């Protein structure tokens, strides 16, 4: 019986650590909030035609939060929810362009309301 409990305990500890270490949606949205003028193409505000420095800082911070595919799935689902809530006010392709526009070498998937976040990869 003890031989069964030790592996089970390890699996539970790893699972709990994974759940606790995943970035929160609140963190993701707060980091990307400076990007709203860019992803909305709000040319009346600063950043409408290109991402601002605070936006790129947030994108870089989100990049650093991604320690596993599970983290990428959580971040993707959060972004997907935000985009759905904003509706037609955003240009979804601009979200996936953010890393490149900010000079960060990481691929963000083309997230929209139909994207399956379980398909994201680490690179």
Strand and helix map with partners:
Layout: H1 2-21, H2 25-32, H3 36-39, H4 53-65, H5 69-86, H6 92-101
Describe the fold and architecture.
By secondary structure, this protein is mainly α. Helix content is 59%, strand content 0%. The chain contains 6 helices and no strands. α2 packs antiparallel against α4. The chain is globular and about 35 Å long.
Number of strand segments: 0
Helix content: 55-70%
Binned strand content: under 5%
Structural class: mainly alpha
Biggest sheet record: none
Indicate the overall shape.
globular
Provide the descriptors you would attach to this structure in a database record.
globular, single chain, 6 helices, mainly alpha
Summarize this, please?
This protein has 123 residues and is an all-alpha fold. The chain has helices at 2-21, 25-32, 36-39, 53-65, 69-86, 92-101.
């Amino acid at each position: 019986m003890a031989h069964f409990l030790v592996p089970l305990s390890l699996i539970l500890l790893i699972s709990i650590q994974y759940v606790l270490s995943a970035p929160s949606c609140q963190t993701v949205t707060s980091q990307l909030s400076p990007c709203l003028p860019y992803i909305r193409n709000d040319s009346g505000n600063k950043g409408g035609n290109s991402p601002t420095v605070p936006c790129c800082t947030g994108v870089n911070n989100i990049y650093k939060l991604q320690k596993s595919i599970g983290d990428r799935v959580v971040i993707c689902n959060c972004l997907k929810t935000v985009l759905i809530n904003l509706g037609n006010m955003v240009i979804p392709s601009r979200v996936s362009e953010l890393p490149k526009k900010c000079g960060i070498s990481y691929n963000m998937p083309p997230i929209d309301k139909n994207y399956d976040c379980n398909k994201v990869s680490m690179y």
